[in-house]
Amino acid sequence: MLPGFIATATTGSNFDAYIHGCDAPGNSFRKLDVNNNDNHPQEYTSFEKAKQLTNNNIGIIPNPNNGTFQISVTKNNQAIGVKDVKVYDMIGKVIWENNTPLGNLFNVDISGYVPGIYYVRAINEVGDINLKKLIKQ
Length: 137
Fold this sequence. Notes:
By secondary structure, the protein is an all-beta fold. Helices cover 0% and strands 39% of the residues.
């Protein structure tokens, strides 16, 4: 996407953008379907057969915050085990992680980082990938 890119959408629509390496030609969301007689690539649809990204299964309290907050991970408003939870800065660098979590509540301190927008990503025990925006004041 070029500077100034604006995505507009109506209620209920999704916009997915993915960053991938440019070392190969073509769209990285295409695959060769060996069962297709004409051997033409078939389009992926938002990471075909992958779990959908959701943001309603991560709670961040408080949000916005001063860098000290609690993350809770749920599924259908019920506590669920977590495989991995990370906080990313805007360029995708992991600034906090707990990849051996116990339970579904995590106390986080990123107060040493500059104010701005960060993202929390959690993978629950059934493989759902959850993503939510975090604002550090």
